[in-house]
Amino acid sequence: MSTGVDTRDGAEVLVQSNVFTDVDEPIAALYSDDTGYAVAIDNDLGGESNTAPVGNLTASSMPYSYSLLGSGSVVAAVVGTAGATLSF
User: Fold this and answer.
1) How many other CB atoms are found less than 10 A from the CB of residue 51?
2) How far apart are CA 18 and CA 63, in angstroms?
3) Distance set, CA 39 to CA 50, 69, 72, 76, 82 (Å)
4) What are the entry keywords (predicted)?
5) Which position among 5, 27, 69, 72 has the lowest Cβ density within 10 Å, counted as fewest Cβ atoms?
6) What is the rounded distance in angstroms from the CA atom of residue 20 to the CA atom of residue 74?
7) From CA 86, how far away is CA 88, in angstroms rounded?
8) Do 75 and 32 meet the contact criterion of CB atoms below 8 Å apart?
9) Is-contact 11 29, C-beta < 8 A?
10) Which whole number is the average pLDDT over 25-42?
């Protein structure tokens, strides 16, 4: 995949506890005259870098509460539970 999260048009995204594998631009601000912003916390970018300008969002600015799984636990959680499970 070439791009994971692409923030544009002045948007601001909070990207937390993700794992990107084989992604050229995991977090970026591409393809727009009006760039966007990203606050990236606890992400495994697979050896690549976040090229989006830093924004100002914080978890405390969200109108709800949530807890993070942590990037170190994401692969096992997704592989173990995402998608259809077939049995024959």
Assistant:
1) 12
2) 21
3) 9, 17, 19, 24, 26
4) Lyase, Membrane, Transmembrane, Transmembrane helix
5) 72
6) 10
7) 7
8) no
9) no
10) 87
Following DSSP, what letter does each residue of 48-84 receive, concatenated? --B-SPB----GGGSSS------HHHHHHHHHHHSS-
Q: Which residues contact 69 (CB under 8 A, 6 or more apart)?
A: 17, 77
pLDDT at 21 over 80: yes
- Which pLDDT does position 29 carry in this prediction? 86
| Residue matched to tokens 């937390």 | 16
Q: 79 or 16, which is more confident? A: 16
CA distance 6 to 25: 8
Confidence at residue 39, expressed as pLDDT on a 0 to 100 scale: 93
Q: Cα separation of 9 and 29, whole Å?
A: 9
